[in-house]
Each structure stands twice: as C-alpha cells, then as structure tokens.
Specification:
CATH superfamily of the largest domain: DD-peptidase/beta-lactamase superfamily
Largest sheet: 6 strands, mixed
Distance between the termini: 19 Å
Order of helices and strands: HEEHEHEHHHHHEEHEEEHEEEEEEEEH
Number of strands: 17
Strand order of the largest sheet: 14-16-17-12-11-15
CATH topology of the largest domain: Beta-lactamase
Structural class: alpha+beta
CATH architecture of the largest domain: 3-Layer(aba) Sandwich
Helix content: 25-40%
Strand content: 25-35%
CATH class of the largest domain: Alpha Beta
Length: 409
C-alpha cells in the first residue's frame, strides 16, 4: 500500500511540476561539442565562389577547389571534353586503392607480368614478360613514375584484362557522377573515344586524395624497382610540386601531343586541403607554375570556418501545446564548415525557420525545421533542427506510466 502511494505521489509531482520559462527568441549561439567523425565526401558545389579566374593562365581548362567541402573556388572551361593523358591513371589508382583498403587485394600479392603489360609504350618501369612484382611495387610505379606497364599489370590482377578494367573504370566514374567521361584504357595513352573534363578529373582526383594509403606512395621523390635479374630501374616522381611547392603531397601528371601538359595535384596547409586541376598547358614547367599560382591564391584568400556542429543546443524552448511540458529544447542535426573569404566571417548570418509551436506528443529527435545559413543575403546552406527530448501529452497516465516503468526497472 505504501509503495503504491509513493508511485502515485511521484507521478503527480512529474505531471504538475513547473517548467523552465520560455525564451522570447531562439538564440543560435553555438556550444562546444566534440569534433565529428569523418564522413563520406559531399558532391562538388554547383557554383564557384568566383565567376572568373583571378588571373590569366595559358591552359585549356582548370579548376581550384577545397577538398572537404567540395567548394569550387574558380574554374575555366570545366566541362570541355578532352584527352588528359596519364591523368587517366587517377581512376586506375583509385580502383586499386579501394580494393586494397577493403581487403580484396593485397600489396604483397605477386603478379606475373604479361606480354600485354610489358609491351606498353610511353612512360614505363621496363617490366619484362614473366617478371614477378608485387601489387605494392606496381602501385608505387604507377603513382610515382606514371608507369604504363605497371598500370596494365594492376588492371590485369584486379580484373583479368585491361578491357574489363576500363569497363569498371567507366562504372566507377558513373557512380561518382562523372557525366562527361569515357575510358578506353587504364593508362591514358591516346585512344579514340577516350575523354574527360576538368570537372570530372576533380571528382575522381578528390576521391583518390581521400585515401590515406595513397599518401604512402605519393610523397616518394626517388626510389627504384628491382627486377630480380640484376636490373634496377630508377623511379623519379613526375609530380615536381612535391618538392617545389610547400604543402603539396600528391598529384598525377600527364602529357601527350593531343592532351598537352596536365596535372591534378593537392596541397594542404593547416586544416585546409586544396585540389588544383590544370589541363592542356603548353609546357610541363607552365603546368606546374599554373597549379602553384592556383594554390597560392587559395591559401592566401580563403579559410575553413566552422559554422555549426551536430548536437549544438539552440537556447530557449519551442512551445508545446497539450504537453506535459510547456516547451521542448532543440538542437542542430548536422555539421557545417564553410569555405569563406578571409575577413568575411562576420557576414555569415543564421536564420531559423521553425514552427510557432508543436502539438504533443513530441518524439525525441523529431525534425522541426532548419536554420538557413546566409552570406550577403544568399542562402548557402541549411542545417536541420530536431528536438532534444520527448514530450508526453498532458495528463496523468503518461507521466505515471513513465515513473512506474522507471521504478520497476
């Protein structure tokens, strides 16, 4: 009897207890929360920050973007299809990295070099028919030395033939949203029908640059390949920017008469990683100079600014009608870091779009609206808003059931 009276008393206290006073405005001042875990790459932005490149460059196409946000800073002829020579190998390398990181391929797997692989022209590491090399050595040769023979050997161990590999490259390109790309081979050697764009190169390069395993090879400047028969082939990184540009730790070059001189490179300073794509430059030296100037502009003028973190509480309560509580706390249900012009952070404005009230019952985590992020009267993002806790319908029984459940447990 005494226990039943105690349960009833606790239930009445819960139902009729006072609630915090409601704020007249919702304060969006953020509160510190832990850094979020790494997430999948978001799509590239639809609109560049600059309408035109800030300088003239002697190349067919180019694009500068920030890695994490996918924000394009500027671009020139981004959607013009063209040959990109060995930059094609970005997709070959990406497929190998994905297979290695998911355990479908091992760096220690020994590959017997085929006649097709050994017969590749252009850049090569001079593999012989019947020679045995590990997947790790082949990947290093493709990344560092842009070796065509190593790329074909990788294609064969991954998929059985270069043709099937090219088909898989096209499938992966489609999955990534590369709408103006078609691969015929895995090397980038001239082939009818093979083409891509600066925009699509940026997509696949960004994906490649997201793999930590890639950087174990990309930063190698000098190395060698032991053929096992007394021959040694020296490897020198074709991406000169890893020595010439502070912060550059990866990239893929390419050049043919048709493609001109091309590069997709990345550089990181502080917490910001940039990607520069240059296609169709007149000389190799000019290709590197243009990419360097692009990086210089990006690092000098932009920064990453954390606007919101998932779980940040919105101060105040959203009114609840017919509820056991008069209001419910809210929180942001997403992370947002923007690439902004240095010094423009104060121009960022947060504007909530929320209902006047909610009707009970209210579930915890229930979507209730969003916060618009505006820069210069232009909405650049929206952050979802959800409830932090549940609110039962007003009455004795919901509160009693909750108390009884807690008491029995």
């Amino acid at each position: 009897m005494l226990r039943n009276l105690l349960i009833l008393f606790l239930g009445l206290c819960l139902v009729f207890s006072s609630v915090p006073a409601l704020g007249t405005e919702i304060d969006l001042s953020p509160t510190p929360v832990p850094e979020p875990a790494e997430a999948a790459l978001c799509p590239l932005s639809d609109t560049p920050l600059l309408e035109h490149p800030p300088f003239n460059a002697s190349c067919a196409s180019m694009m500068l973007l920030e890695m994490d946000s996918g924000q394009i800073i500027f671009q020139s002829n981004p959607d013009t299809p063209r040959s990109v020579a060995s930059v094609t190998k970005v997709m070959t390398i990406l497929l190998a990295l994905e297979m290695l990181e998911t355990g479908r391929l091992s760096a220690d797997t020994v590959v017997t070099i085929s006649e097709d692989a050994a017969g590749m022209g252009g850049s090569q590491v001079l593999l012989d028919v019947g020679e045995k090399q590990t997947v790790g050595v082949l990947l290093k040769s493709a990344i560092v030395g842009s070796a065509n023979d190593a790329a074909v050997a990788l294609a064969e161990v991954m998929y059985g033939s270069e043709k099937i590999c090219a088909d898989r490259m096209n499938e992966r390109a489609a999955a990534l949203g590369m709408t103006d790309t078609h691969f015929v081979n895995c090397t980038g050697l001239p082939a009818a029908g093979q083409h891509t764009t600066a925009h699509d190169v940026a997509i696949m390069a960004r994906e490649m640059f997201s793999h930590s395993l890639y950087y174990e090879y990309a930063g190698i400047w000098l190395d060698e390949v032991d053929h096992g028969d007394g021959r040694i082939t020296q490897l020198t990184n074709t991406n000169k920017l890893i020595r010439l540009y502070d912060g550059c730790d990866g990239g893929k070059t390419g050049s043919t008469n048709e493609a001109g001189y091309c590069i997709a490179a990345t550089a990181k300073r502080g917490d910001m990683r940039l990607i520069a794509v240059v296609l169709g430059a007149d000389t190799g030296k000019e290709r590197f100079a243009i990419a360097s100037e692009m990086f210089d502009y990006g690092f000098a003028n932009y920064r990453r600014y954390p606007v919101a973190r998932k779980g940040t509480r919105i101060k105040g309560l959203l009114p609840v009608t017919g509820g056991a509580s008069e209001g419910v706390p809210l929180m942001l249900d997403g992370d947002l870091t923007l690439l902004v012009l240095k010094g423009s952070e104060q121009s960022i404005q947060l504007s909530p779009s929320l209902p006047q009230s909610l009707a009970a019952p209210v579930a915890s985590g229930q979507p209730v609206g969003h916060v618009a992020v505006n820069i210069e009267n232009r909405t650049v993002a929206q952050i979802p808003v959800v409830t932090c806790e549940s609110v039962d319908a007003k009455g004795l029984m919901p509160g009693l059931r909750r108390v009884i459940g807690q008491w029995v447990a």
